[in-house]
């Protein structure tokens, strides 16, 4: 169903006009572009143009028009089970329920699926480490992980962002020696750290001692402090504040942890035994080439006493950051510098726009990423420090070749 009850111009846009819009690391499930110019260039590509688009993508060659629309819609997926929708995975039980899953009660088949998945996951990480893959997503039925190569998002080391997390997952990671931070907790609740260390309690009791009333008030023991700490831990579970950031060599430890984590795969329900979905902009071992679905539609909308033609292009599927950027580059020229877009975000991934601290060596690091398969202008956008924080871009508009957006 194509919802066209949307404004062509975007009201109350929160940004000022700019030649570029900020990187948005969330995954979009749907894009709806509208323009006064037709999208005929995106329709019914000739067989040769489609083939050239595939070849351009696989060889990471320069974008040529109109084959570039095909090139921009390609993504790589593992596992590939055509009868199942493998993204999104969080909250997907209802859509998957009733579909035949040959492996749900077959332990041997589950082991084969997980073994193949581990090979694909390791292949992706190795490509990322070699800067031949810019980033990829691991989508489980409970949480999503974004792995980014060194040089992207203002970091000089590999980063992995996990959202949402639970106390159980965080404790399991700690037990494996994986160091991580909770950036939003650290940003908004710095006093919690003092509380966990018992500093504030000790300080208050030394003050009571000076007042001579310390014997009338029971000092909290180690157990009650631990219980308070655990309560604070549980309070952020599944919330935006639970987003975890892993950096550097700890990301390799995270890779091994996820491969060996029993709870990574659902033990019961419609997703039982189904490995997490791997999404990447570039090919990797065991991956299947997929394309986002794109369709254009023309409608007439009433404006005062007459009808105006409004042209729309709808793109559905897991739209990754590079895809959003390359599509807008195409639209910039094809739609003569004027279009608007409504972006539908997969909400659990909106937190991937939190800011990592800017690295000193970052400016030289990104130069090694020129062979990662992305257009250089797209790469230039993705190396910048994230600025959207806990939000993601919902509305994007280009007027006179300048962007304005609203998150």
Automatic annotation (TrEMBL):
Keyword Hydrolase: no
Protein name (Swiss-Prot/TrEMBL): Downstream neighbor of SON
Lineage, opening ranks: Eukaryota, Metazoa, Chordata, Craniata, Vertebrata
GO biological process, one term: nuclear DNA replication
Gene Ontology CC annotation, any one: nucleus
Signal peptide per UniProt: none
Intracellular or extracellular location(s): Nucleus
Entry keywords, A to Z: Developmental protein, Nucleus
Family statement drawn from the similarity comment of this UniProt entry: Belongs to the DONSON family.
């Amino acid at each position: 169903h194509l919802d066209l009850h949307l404004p062509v111009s975007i009201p109350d846009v929160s940004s000022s006009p700019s030649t570029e819009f900020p990187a948005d690391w969330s995954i979009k499930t749907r894009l709806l572009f509208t323009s006064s110019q037709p999208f005929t260039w995106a329709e019914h590509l000739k067989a040769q143009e489609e083939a050239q688009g595939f070849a351009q993508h696989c060889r990471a060659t320069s974008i040529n028009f109109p084959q570039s629309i095909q090139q921009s819609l390609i993504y790589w997926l593992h596992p590939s089970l055509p009868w199942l929708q493998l993204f999104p995975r969080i909250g997907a039980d209802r859509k998957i329920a009733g579909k035949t899953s040959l492996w749900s009660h077959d332990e041997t088949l589950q082991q084969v699926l997980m073994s193949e998945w581990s090979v694909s996951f390791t292949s992706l990480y190795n490509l990322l480490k070699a800067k031949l893959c810019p980033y990829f997503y691991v989508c489980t039925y409970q949480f999503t992980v974004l792995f980014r190569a060194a040089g992207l998002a203002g970091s000089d080391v590999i980063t992995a962002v996990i959202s949402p997390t639970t106390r159980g997952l965080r404790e399991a990671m700690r037990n494996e020696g994986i160091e991580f931070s909770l950036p939003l907790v650290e940003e908004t609740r710095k006093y919690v750290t003092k509380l966990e260390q018992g500093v504030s309690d000790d300080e208050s009791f030394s003050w009571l001692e000076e007042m001579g009333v310390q014997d009338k008030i029971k000092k909290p023991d180690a157990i009650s402090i631990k219980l308070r700490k655990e309560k604070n831990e549980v309070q952020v579970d599944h919330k935006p504040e639970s987003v975890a950031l892993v950096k550097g060599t700890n990301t390799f430890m995270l890779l091994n942890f996820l491969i060996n984590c029993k709870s990574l795969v659902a033990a019961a329900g419609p997703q039982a035994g189904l490995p997490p979905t791997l999404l990447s902009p570039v090919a990797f071992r065991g991956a299947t080439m997929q394309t986002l679905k794109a369709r254009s539609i023309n409608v007439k909308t009433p404006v005062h006493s007459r009808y105006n033609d409004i042209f729309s292009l709808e793109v559905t599927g897991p739209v990754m950051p590079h895809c959003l950027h390359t599509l807008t580059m195409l639209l910039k020229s094809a739609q003569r510098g004027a279009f608007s877009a409504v972006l539908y975000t997969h909400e659990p991934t909106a937190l991937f726009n939190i800011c990592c601290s800017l690295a000193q060596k970052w400016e030289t690091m990104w130069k090694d990423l020129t062979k990662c398969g992305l257009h250089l202008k797209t790469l230039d956008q993705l190396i910048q420090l994230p600025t959207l924080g806990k939000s993601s871009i919902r509305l994007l508009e280009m007027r006179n070749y300048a962007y304005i957006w609203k998150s």
